[in-house]
Every structure is written in structure tokens, then in C-alpha cells.
Write a structure and sequence with these properties.
Length: 564
């Protein structure tokens, strides 16, 4: 919820005024990210309690901050397609939460009630179903257009949908001033100096250091071989649905490293592509590594649109023999495994055999398999699509001008067979597989630094019926200044419904000088302790709760039990 709230605070009219704010659309409503078999648009099997406790809070938080548009999803839940789910679109979203914006279908998802889900006998029936459920806008207009002259049209539902859309347009002033006053105004805002600086800061703070045997940070007098499909491919630094960009807008890792230590100290060989097994020069890459002091190889995945790839009407990309792009993530790109694609594993093995110290950097959209790199690389880092300044950010980290403090926002599995793998699984604690540990390779919240931190003096004070003030002191025990991400978890050891083993309830990134200490304070409110009981009521049940502090979900250093 905090990430969703932050995004909306920066854009919504509620915080920026109706003359400057924009309507943000929350996607996709709801539980779209857990389809059966990992297939985009497949049914999501999830109960109401799970929806309310783990999927709906992010939407609710964003709406509280002023989001005014919600997009439905292609999936179904318990046999009801999301675009026709009146209980969720009207009952929860509009009636229960008081949502004042409008609901828009995903592209042609209303048509899909007939053509995909087979719950409507015609496009006209599909339109009536979606409208009755509370879907106000038909993105694609294949169904609502048919209702104009239909005798089956519910005019009351239509009036409500039109009212919601027009109200927002009037409040934004779109009928009085539909266009900006001048194109120059947009040019002064988009990618200005302040926003570029923010992009660099975000990229730096997003670098996650997973392994380091002491090789990092690198010396700036080293001869460096920069290798890999993601080392100098601009669009592989960006996410799906990125518009075409001028070359000067994006700094690749190769460009960042050259700017850091000078081009004369850098040798670049791509080695291979993300997907295409035919495009490779692995032997040349190995030679470059052998002739260097260190090899930094950029592997991973891509959501890059090369603007030559073919696309479906929905915008999802199509790969065929005539167009093998780097895309292995993004809409419509479902994976059966998390293995590196193409000849990337072969490239890594060849570089390891050279004996040259090896630094592996994953640039990715999903948490790909890192088991080999965890065992064989001298250092391992990951960046989830770092954006336009990603190359500069990774160079800053590699050479020690920025002390990494990124933390994993997901658990990284040892094998795709573990999926789903996540830190806040409900009791009971699972047991190991026959072949391997059941624990993730890297846990949620994990990330290393070039310095070390200690935690002490955890304080928990009950200040209200369901409010606790938490404080913890963090000390930098290493030789470098750095940031630490303090994480506060809560466990409810005895409850009327099955609870998570632990749940992140607060966090803060703090800067601590070498040898210094910081006391960090948090206030945990009702949401930190509440659950949905047997009767689906949101309550805080009296009893004990365990407050825990640490640098990651698998490294809890302090805990204290309180009673509410």
C-alpha cells in the first residue's frame, strides 16, 4: 500500500490541484498477478479473506490518496470474470470504499465476456453484464456502442456511468481548457533537470547487492571487460510500453562505466543476446575477460520493444521466426521457467573458466534464476529495469561512489518448482523438499552493503487501543557511511483465523555515518494488527503480538511481545 500511496500522491488532483493533477488508473483489479499456471489472463484462485488482506489494500490506499480510475483485469475469480464482477466493482469499490472515480475495462475485456470467458451469448449481452456490474467505460468500444439502440439497455446504469466520467472531466477543466497552453510548457516539465536527478537517485537506491566476496567496490585503475546482452542495449534498461526514446536520454551500463574510469580501461564484447541463440560471440567475450582485471557481465531479461516486433491488438508482443526480440517479460510473455534464456548460461560458464574475477549483474523484470551466479560469481547484483540513469547508477555502485542499500521487494526462488514463494506465508511453517530447501535463495527485504550495521534497544509502547510506538537504534559498525533499510515485522501468534508467520508493517531508509547511530521511530496503527475474522469483519483481536526488527525478513535481530 505504501508504494501505491506514494505514486498517487505525486500525481493526483487531491494533492496537486485539479489544474495540475492527473487521473491515475490503477491496474488491474484484482488479483491479476496470480493466474493459474502463470498464464496471463487465466483464472485466479483466491478467497475473499486473501483478497481483503493481501490484494485490495494497495488499491484502497491509492484511492484514499486520490486515484480516480480503476481498470478491470482479464482474469476471473471463483467463476466470475473481473469485468463483470458486481460484488467487487460496485459492492467493494464504490459502495464500501466510496470510490468517486470511474471504472474502465481492460482493452476489449468486455468483448472477452463472450469470446473468452463464454459467460455472455453476444457482445450486446456482454455490454449489459459489464455495465450492470459497474464498469463505466468500454476500452475498445466493441460492446457499449451496440447498446445505444438496444431495448435491453439499463438507462439508469448508463446514466450513472456517464455521470462518473463527465464529473471527472468537468473537475479537470477538460471542456473549458482541453489542451495545454503551449508545447514548450510540456518540454519544460518532461525530463527536466530535477526529474533527471530523481531518476538517478531512484536507480541508485534500487541497486541490490546480493553477493560480494570482497571484490567490490572495484578500483578505478582496473582494466574492465564489460560483457553481456544487457550491457549496452538501451531499451533493456526500461520497462514494457516504453515509447521510443532519443539515444541521449538513456545511459547504459557500458556508458556509465566508461564515464567512470575512462574508455581506455574498458573493453566491450556483447557475447550473446537475451533470447536469440544464433547471435553470439562468446569466445571473443572470454578473450576480453582473460585480458582484463575483472569481467562485469550484464545478463537477465528484457521487456524492450524494439519497434520492429509485431504486436497484438491489445499491445502484447508476438515473437515468431521473423522477429526474435529480446523480450522475455512484459504483457503476454509468460515463462515456464526462470532460467536465463538464449546462450546466457553458456556465456557465464565461459567467463568463469577464464579465471578472471567475475561480477554478474542481472537487469530484469522478474526474479530470474540466480543459483549458478550465487555459487560462482565473485559478486552478484540485480536491478529491476533501472530506467534512463541506470547505467550511471550501477557504475556508481560498482566503483564505490554509492554504497548500495537496495532491498529485494520479492523473494527470489531457488527453483520455479517453489512458486509461489513469498515471505508472509501463513502458518504452518513448511518443510523442505526432497531435492532442496524450501527457503528462497534470497529472502524478501534482503540486500548487502559495503558497510555493516547492528540493531539494539528495541522499544515498544502501547499508546492506544490498537496503536504502538516502536523505536530501534541502528549503528554503522563498518568503515563506510551508508544507508540501512530498517524493517519492522509483526506476528500474531494466536488468532481466530490463520495468520502470516510474519508481516512487514513499517520500514524506513536511514543514512548512518561510519561509527554513528540513529534511533528510528515508527507508529503502528490498527492496520498493523487487524485481521478479517470468521464472519469477514475487520477487527483487532485482543491478545499478544510479536514486534520484530531487522534488515530483512529472514534476519530478524530483535523482537518484543506486546499485549493489546
Amino acid at each position: 500500500p505504501e508504494m501505491a500511496r506514494a505514486m498517487i500522491r505525486g500525481t493526483s488532483p487531491k494533492h496537486n490541484g485539479w489544474d495540475k493533477g492527473v487521473v491515475s488508473t490503477l491496474k488491474h483489479f484484482v488479483a491479476y498477478g496470480i493466474p493459474q499456471g502463470g498464464h496471463n489472463g487465466n483464472p485466479s484462485f483466491v478467497g475473499e479473506r486473501e483478497l481483503r488482506e493481501n490484494f485490495l489494500p494497495a488499491f484502497h490506499g491509492a484511492i484514499d490518496e486520490g486515484a480516480l480510475s480503476v481498470m478491470t483485469s482479464y482474469n476471473s475469480i471463483d467463476g466470475v470474470p473481473s469485468t463483470a464482477n458486481r460484488k467487487l466493482l460496485t459492492g467493494t469499490l464504490k459502495d464500501e470504499w466510496g470510490f468517486e472515480g470511474f471504472v474502465v475495462s481492460d482493452l476489449v475485456s468486455i468483448d472477452g465476456l463472450a469470446g473468452d470467458h463464454h459467460v455472455a451469448g453476444s457482445l450486446e449481452d456482454a455490454g449489459n453484464m459489464a455495465l450492470a456490474a459497474g464498469c463505466d467505460v468500454d476500452l475498445g468500444a466493441g460492446c457499449y456502442g451496440l447498446l445505444a439502440d438496444s431495448k435491453s439497455l439499463d438507462t439508469k446504469a448508463l446514466d450513472e456511468a456517464v455521470r462518473r466520467v463527465l464529473l471527472i472531466k468537468f473537475r479537470l477543466g477538460l471542456f473549458d481548457h482541453p489542451y495545454i497552453d503551449s508545447p514548450e510548457e510540456a518540454e519544460s516539465i518532461v525530463r527536466n533537470a530535477g526529474h533527471t536527478a530523481t531518476a538517478l537517485r531512484a536507480a541508485r537506491e534500487g541497486v541490490v547487492l546480493l553477493e560480494n566476496n570482497g571484490i567490490l567496490p572495484l578500483r578505478k585503475d582496473m582494466k574492465v571487460a564489460v560483457i553481456g546482452p544487457n550491457a549496452d542495449t538501451q531499451y533493456n534498461q526500461l520497462g514494457d510500453y516504453t515509447a521510443p526514446q532519443p539515444e541521449d536520454n538513456i545511459i547504459t551500463p557500458l556508458e556509465g562505466i566508461k564515464a567512470k574510469i575512462g574508455p581506455d580501461r574498458v573493453t566491450f564484447v556483447k557475447g550473446c543476446a537475451v533470447r536469440d541463440p544464433l547471435r553470439q560471440n562468446i569466445s571473443e567475450a572470454a578473450k576480453a575477460a582473460k585480458a582484463s582485471d575483472v569481467a562485469v557481465v550484464f545478463v537477465g531479461g528484457s521487456s524492450a520493444r524494439d519497434f520492429e516486433t509485431k504486436y497484438q491488438e491489445t499491445g502484447a508482443a508476438i515473437a515468431d521466426e521473423s522477429a526474435v526480440s529480446d523480450m522475455e517479460a512484459g504483457e503476454g510473455f509468460d515463462r515456464a521457467t526462470l532460467d536465463l534464456m538464449g546462450r546466457q548460461p553458456e556465456l557465464l560458464e565461459a567467463l568463469r573458466r577464464t579465471g578472471t574475477p567475475l561480477v554478474v549483474v542481472y537487469i530484469e523484470g522478474r526474479p530470474l534464476d540466480k543459483a549458478w551466479a550465487a555459487q560462482n560469481a565473485d559478486a552478484l547484483l540485480t536491478q529491476f529495469y533501472p530506467g534512463q540513469a541506470g547505467g550511471q547508477a550501477i557504475a556508481d555502485v560498482l566503483f564505490g561512489d554509492c554504497n548500495p542499500a537496495g532491498r529485494l521487494p520479492v523473494s527470489v526462488p531457488r527453483s520455479a518448482g517453489q512458486l509461489p514463494v513469498y515471505y508472509n506465508k501463513p502458518f504452518p511453517r513448511g518443510h523442505d523438499y526432497v531435492e532442496m530447501s524450501a527457503e528462497p535463495l534470497y529472502a524478501f527485504g534482503y540486500g548487502l552493503s559495503y558497510t555493516t550495521f547492528s540493531y539494539d534497544s528495541l522499544g515498544c509502547e502501547v499508546t492506544g487501543p490498537a496503536q504502538v510506538r516502536v523505536s530501534v537504534t541502528v549503528s554503522n559498525t563498518g568503515s563506510r557511511d551508508g544507508d540501512e533499510v530498517v524493517q519492522i515485522y509483526v506476528t500474531d501468534p494466536l488468532a481466530s483465523t490463520v495468520r502470516p508467520r510474519l508481516q512487514l508493517r513499517a520500514f524506513e531508509r536511514v543514512f548512518v555515518e561510519s561509527g554513528g547511530s540513529r534511533t528510528v521511530e515508527f507508529t503502528l496503527g490498527e492496520d498493523a494488527f487487524a485481521l478479517y475474522d470468521i464472519d469477514m469483519r475487520k477487527v483487532v483481536e485482543p491478545g499478544e503480538f510479536i514486534i520484530q526488527a531487522g534488515p530483512s525478513s529472514d534476519n530478524i535481530l530483535l523482537s518484543q511481545t506486546i499485549t493489546l
